[in-house]
Design brief:
four-stranded antiparallel beta sheet; single chain; alpha+beta; seven-stranded antiparallel beta sheet
Length: 657
């Protein structure tokens, strides 16, 4: 869906004068924002990290004054606005909130200021006094299911009357309407809509200035402060164009919405709800695209899809919001033919690896089997778009097939589709590997560690073993499994070997979990991605090390979220947000670590509750709550289409359906 902007005025006044003068009130004392489980409040107008609203179709960001005006600009991103050729990068659009205030209507930082992100209603609001002495409020929201965004600006004049303008877009379908046109309207004294300023198509901006009496705005406000008509338009909203109040209502929480509620520190609760809020908004249920690591918050990673979606985001949403989660396997299934083409191109190129070309394997009577090769960095078409050595992260095909298999267990895709995905992965790994000493080996592949290209990566070989049913060389020494052949155990960018424990839940690795954590957990770079600590939290929780699990969980998000609105960054020292992968990892730690949810061939040891799934799988719950949480309630999780609420106290589970 493309975005074309129109605007409608709500209330008009005849004069602009504000109700006080700059500096006529003393500066207020600095206050500490309250911590609320549903509302994130900011009292500092100098905050740099912008707020974010999105719904998987569009993503819009706002500065401290509620607009997108800044020295760097804040673009809008739409899920259908990708290049159709080349690297298929997502392209920025003009943010319709990119108007600029005149100096008189800038924030007066000596007066009270407050902005709020409501995690239940899905709204952002900024309230402050302008330098011209005008009480000003900006309200922003987004339709949860359509590419419709709205913002209402309200300014009170000297007479106490309100001047209010609505900025809003239509949900246009035509590619020709891809570039937004922004027009500002207000209602004149005769009730007619008057166009007062315009931003043209494309990325060029023209400021919108709300001014006091005695100044002019594009010939609309005369020196006496009354309105003059520049041009009069007849503007009728389409049937699909909701009012701003209807947008607010649509964005609000619905009965039965899933929630994760804890009886514990309010900071923990606020983060969990923020992660739920942002993850739900990162992906749309129509399934046309999956989710990028940064969603629609920026063009970092070009809006492309990685294993982040399949291994990190999907498990976090599969029980919480399956309608959105299944868009992830749907995206992969829709590009299966392209994955076959990728496989054919790889064969024609001589089967290149991270160490050159691979020798032709033997033993395939009647020719090699068909297979699929999913790209490390995927976009609209599903071709490989990464230019560098990351293209040799050959675990991606297995990660995709594994995720689709999990989706089938939960009834989100068909068993037939899941089996075809597994067969396709088997075809690829059968040709990607070689036989040596009775085992198959994969040489010259990049580990999930991402700092190493070498032979027999443990995670990659386990996926190949699962897909093909053949025995692969799994690197190990006399103490435990290793990350890859000749692993010096010196350092890693992110969790790699321990992925065999979770999410793969490989039984021999689980038996060695304590030894492997002792060898690998403290050797990950301190500036690595957040997911490492999430994985460590899950493993420690399942080992019964609840204190270590709770600390690792805090480590998985506290250093990464940027104030004031808990926007997730990819690394501790990075300001780039919103990192969906990190938030998803932290939520997985709550669900599959603390709550003890497990999807496997059999129920977990000590499970308090279980239910059979598709394909012979079982979902069970064996809680591992930290002592800081008296109770954990998982409200309205969906399992095979049925809603369940789980109340967990200690190691006990109460179930309502």
């Amino acid at each position: 869906m493309s975005v074309r902007v129109i605007t409608l005025a709500l209330v008009g006044v005849l004069a602009f004068g504000c109700s006080s003068k700059p500096g006529d009130k003393p500066a207020t004392a600095v206050k500490v924002a309250p911590v609320d489980p549903w509302i994130i409040t900011n009292l500092d107008p100098s905050v740099q990290t912008p707020a974010l609203l999105w719904n998987g179709l569009i993503g819009v960001r706002f500065g401290a004054d509620g607009s997108a005006a800044s020295k760097d600009g804040l673009s809008l991103f739409a899920i259908d606005n990708y290049q159709q050729k080349g690297e298929e990068k997502i392209e920025p659009l003009l943010n319709p909130s990119g108007f600029g205030f005149s100096k008189s209507f800038a924030i007066d930082r000596t007066k009270p200021y407050e902005s709020r992100l409501d995690l239940r209603l899905g709204t952002f609001q900024a309230s402050y006094w302008s330098l011209g002495g005008c009480p000003t409020t900006l309200e922003c929201t987004i339709d949860p299911q359509r590419a419709i965004w709205g913002q209402r600006v309200t300014i009170k004049n000297a007479g106490g009357k309100e001047f209010s303008v609505l900025f809003q877009n239509t949900d246009a379908e035509s590619p020709k309407e891809r570039d937004p046109d922004l027009a500002t309207w207000l209602i004149g004294p005769n009730g007619r809509k008057i166009r007062i300023s315009t931003t043209t198509s494309g990325l060029a901006k023209k400021e919108h200035e709300f001014v006091r009496a005695g100044t002019r705005l594009n010939g609309v406000v005369d020196d006496a402060g009354s309105l003059t008509i520049e041009r009069v338009y007849s503007l009728t909203p389409s049937e699909n164009q909701p009012s701003f109040d209807q947008l607010l209502q649509a964005a609000g929480d619905k009965p039965g919405t899933t929630d994760i509620e804890i009886d514990g520190p309010v900071e923990d609760q606020q983060f969990i709800r923020s992660a739920l809020f942002y993850l739900r908004g990162a992906i749309h249920r129509d399934g046309k695209m999956s989710v990028s690591p940064m969603g629609l918050s920026s063009d970092i990673y070009n809006g492309h899809v990685f294993w982040d979606a399949d291994i990190w985001v999907f498990p976090a949403l599969a029980l919480i919001d399956p309608e959105r989660a299944k868009a992830i396997p749907a995206y992969r299934l829709a590009r299966r033919d392209r994955a076959r083409e990728n496989m054919a191109a790889w064969l024609m190129a001589g089967k290149p690896t991270g160490k050159g070309l691979m020798a032709q394997p033997t033993g395939w009577a009647g020719g090699p089997p068909a297979g699929t090769k999913y790209p490390w960095e995927s976009s609209v078409s599903g071709k490989e778009t990464v230019p560098g050595p990351s293209k040799f992260q050959d675990h991606i095909t297995g990660s995709v097939a594994w995720s689709v298999s999990q989706a089938a267990s939960l009834g989100l895709v068909s068993n037939e589709d899941a089996q075809r995905m597994r067969n396709g992965a088997a075809g690829f790994y059968s040709l990607r590997s070689q036989r040596a000493n009775g085992l198959r080996e994969i040489k010259g592949t990049m580990s999930p560690d991402e700092n190493h290209i070498g032979d027999n990566d443990l995670y990659t070989n386990l996926l190949a073993q699962w897909a093909t049913g053949q025995q692969y060389n799994l690197p190990k020494d006399d103490k435990s499994f290793l990350t890859y052949d000749n692993d010096a155990l010196r350092g890693y960018k992110q969790a790699a070997a321990v992925l065999s424990i979770y999410p793969l839940q490989y039984p021999p690795a689980e038996k060695q979990a304590r030894a492997m954590m002792g060898r690998f957990a403290d050797k990950v770079t301190k500036n690595g991605p957040a997911m490492t600590d999430s994985i460590h939290s899950i493993i420690w929780a399942r080992l019964g090390e609840k204190d270590k699990a709770y600390k690792a969980w805090h480590d998985s998000w506290k250093p990464f979220v940027k104030p004031p609105f808990l926007l997730f960054s990819e690394k501790r020292n990075s300001s780039r947000t919103y990192f969906t992968t990190g938030a998803a990892g932290s939520l997985q730690a709550v669900l599959y670590g603390f709550a003890g949810i497990r999807i496997d061939d059999k129920k977990a040891p000590g499970a308090q509750w279980s239910i059979p799934l598709k394909n012979g799988k079982v979902l069970s719950i064996a809680p591992n709550l930290p002592k800081e949480w008296k109770k954990l309630t998982l409200r309205n999780l969906t399992i095979l289409g049925k809603k369940y609420t789980f109340e967990i106290v200690g190691d006990r589970v109460k179930v309502q359906s």
